[in-house]
Known about the structure:
It is a single chain. By secondary structure, the protein is mainly beta. The chain folds into 2 domains: 16-63, no CATH class; 65-144, CATH 2.40.50.840. It contains 1 helix and 8 strands, in the order αββββββββ. It has a 5-stranded antiparallel β-sheet with strand order 6-5-4-7-8, with no helix packed on it. The chain has a 3-stranded antiparallel β-sheet with strand order 2-1-3. It starts with 20 loop residues before the first helix and ends in a 7-residue tail after the last strand. The structure holds zinc ion. Zinc ion binds at residues 37, 39-40, 42, 51, 53-54, 56.
Amino acid sequence: xxxxxxxxxxxxxxxxxxxxxxxxxxxxxxxxxxxxxxxxxxxxxxxxxxxxxxxxxxxxxxxxxxxxxxxxxxxxxxxxxxxxxxxxxxxxxxxxxxxxxxxxxxxxxxxxxxxxxxxxxxxxxxxxxxxxxxxxxxxxxxxx
Length: 144
Ligand SMILES: [Zn+2]
C-alpha cells in the first residue's frame, strides 16, 4: 500500500451564469430554491431574468418541495468522467412544482421501468465537497 493520498476525482463544477448564484447557494444550504413567477405561477429552471412563459420580471426565489416524478432515465456503462464511474444513471425529474431537473437516482434502483416513479430530493456531498441535488425513490410509490 502506498502512503500517498488517493486523488479525489473532481466533480464537474457548476457553470455560473448571471442568475445561478442564488440557486447554487440554496443547494449548498440543503434547500433548493428556484424562481417562481408571481404573474403566471410558473416555477423556472434554469434561472432567468424574466419568466419564459409570460415575460414578467416578477420573480421570487422559493424553496421547492423536493418531490417529483421520473420522466426518463438512462444507465451509462462507460465512464466518461472519473467523478462518475460506470455504471451510473442520469434521470430527468419533473418536480411537483413543474420544473424539470437532470440528476441521478441513488440506490436502491428500480428493477423495472423507472418512468413514472415518485422520487424525493436529497443533497449529496460529492468526494470533492460539491453538494448536488439528487434523488431517491419515494415512499409514495405504489407497492407492486
Ligand atoms: Zn410567468
